[in-house]
TrEMBL record, chains A, B:
Family of the protein in this entry: Belongs to the ROK (NagC/XylR) family.
SUPFAM superfamilies: Actin-like ATPase domain (SSF53067)
Lineage, uppermost ranks: Bacteria, Pseudomonadati, Thermodesulfobacteriota, Syntrophobacteria, Syntrophobacterales
Identification of the protein by name: Glucokinase
This enzyme's EC code(s): 2.7.1.2
Sorted UniProt keywords: Kinase, Transferase
Source species of the chain: Syntrophobacter fumaroxidans (strain DSM 10017 / MPOB)
Pfam families named among the record's database cross-references: ROK (PF00480)
GO molecular function: glucokinase activity
PANTHER family in alphabetical order: BIFUNCTIONAL UDP-N-ACETYLGLUCOSAMINE 2-EPIMERASE_N-ACETYLMANNOSAMINE KINASE (PTHR18964:SF149), ROK (REPRESSOR, ORF, KINASE) FAMILY (PTHR18964)
Enzyme class: transferase
Amino acid sequence: MTEDLVIGIDVGGTNMRSALVDPRGRIVLQSRTATGAWLEGRETARRLIEECRSLRLAASGFGAAVRAAGLGVAGRIDPREGRVVFSPNLPRMNGYPLAAELRTALDLPVVMLNDADCFGIGESRLGAGRSIPNWVGLTLGTGVGGCLVLDNHLWTGDNLGFAGEIGHMIVVPGGRPCACGARGCLEAYASGRALVEGFLEAAATGAPVAGIEQRPLEPAKVAARDVHRLALQGDPLAREVFRRMGWAIGLALSNCFTVLGVRHAVIGGGVSAGWDQFEGALVVSLAEHATMFEAADAVIRRGVLGDDAAPLGAALAAWRQLGHGA
Amino acid sequence: MTEDLVIGIDVGGTNMRSALVDPRGRIVLQSRTATGAWLEGRETARRLIEECRSLRLAASGFGAAVRAAGLGVAGRIDPREGRVVFSPNLPRMNGYPLAAELRTALDLPVVMLNDADCFGIGESRLGAGRSIPNWVGLTLGTGVGGCLVLDNHLWTGDNLGFAGEIGHMIVVPGGRPCACGARGCLEAYASGRALVEGFLEAAATGAPVAGIEQRPLEPAKVAARDVHRLALQGDPLAREVFRRMGWAIGLALSNCFTVLGVRHAVIGGGVSAGWDQFEGALVVSLAEHATMFEAADAVIRRGVLGDDAAPLGAALAAWRQLGHGA
């Protein structure tokens, strides 16, 4: 008997993560390819198709057949047309019919979702959100993704192609410019980009850097993990941008809990690796801003699936498209 | 045959509105009594019980029987215990077992809800929210109430006794103090109290008042409707506080739409009578802050049930308790 599998892919601002996933949500094989905000839609599609073909070949190598693909992409999605409508962090994908092209090239059903929604499906079914009916999800990466799980299901709102976009909730009116074009979004304070930009700005203004040796900065090469490393070493500027990040997340989650009447959040994404540097400020901020709920009742968890959450969630969405799973 | 009726009551910061409602949601009889933030819980309960008894008497007068009562109260509610947990605008009600006392005194099933949630049920079933599956509700009164209707039902979240508290979403971190104890809540910019306080503050600083004659102010007697009247007469200070109100509502609704992926809102409450003075700023603010959705797709409606929305919704909740209606 041929085993049935699906492909789950997370197209992020930096990497593309793919996985072959069985009907029980187990990853059979996975891989990672570089992407980048500078890639044209056509080139991203070409790499995606290539990736899917090699996964399909691998599947047939051990007697399995790929039945569908699920695609998670950062940004606002038109799920019917399989098109990226607006992606602040993959701007060259705007308007590109990525899913449609994949569908044609692979002759497979392809479902496309927002990447943070994939995170929500993955963590809800197999991770930190299991057995929690209502929760708010945040993915901290190049940008800040968000999702809502309500009544045990990913909430899709009016099916406008976006929902749970907590990263673009405005936390500081007129504040820092965001990749989306607005000012003061959570993403402008809590993303990997915000950490790097905030740190470089502070360093450039010549603010006193106490306790660590002066070091030459190569702005183009500084990544969020460098800022994290510096914070761990005690750099006060690096610590300050992480504190600001925690403050902004605490405020945004407090607002979400107040509006939704819920008390659980799950935070994932690569930049959540800096947890130790922002958790304290997050907890203080949540308590400072909460009046309708007891801050002590709030439960903020880290995601447990790591980088697998989004490709797994995309795969589960593909399985669902095929009639498997809730 | 005896006709069955229920009582619906809205206990607001200023008035108590009661209605006898039939199973189809028609108001058979209604009345209004003064309440006030200064009233002790015991005195409020006494007035409520008296009101219910006279409505019951009236019902029996035309051959009908009262089967239950629904109670809408501003604030966080413990629905199981029938207790007001925390009410920023009826502070003396905090902790008071209002529903339990009513239940005992009247020997009737009594259901207690947040007053803005009653507005949500009323407008959803019989008003501006009919046929709109997902919408955000705001009630502008002494404070700012909020509710969410999701999938055609009032959203109650984790049943923590509050949900949809958009009035306590923080729109300006560290901003104006709010009755709830936090700073910068929507309510601190968009409530009747905020209008009056903002206007009096501006007038007291001696800011130039152009275009109208100087008038003696009696701060204790100024109400939101007076600020509205002054705005209609062209008073720039009054107009400014209404503009600020519209700006804050536009920002809060933009955040709600971005997080929920929905595009409809219904605004009610007595202070929504100032619609002409804040709508323009609201629309501008919504467009300025929206990036995930097209501001042109957003639909902001006024409630159509007026002061009847909350007592009607409370009555519908009582009918539901009895097994009538969805």
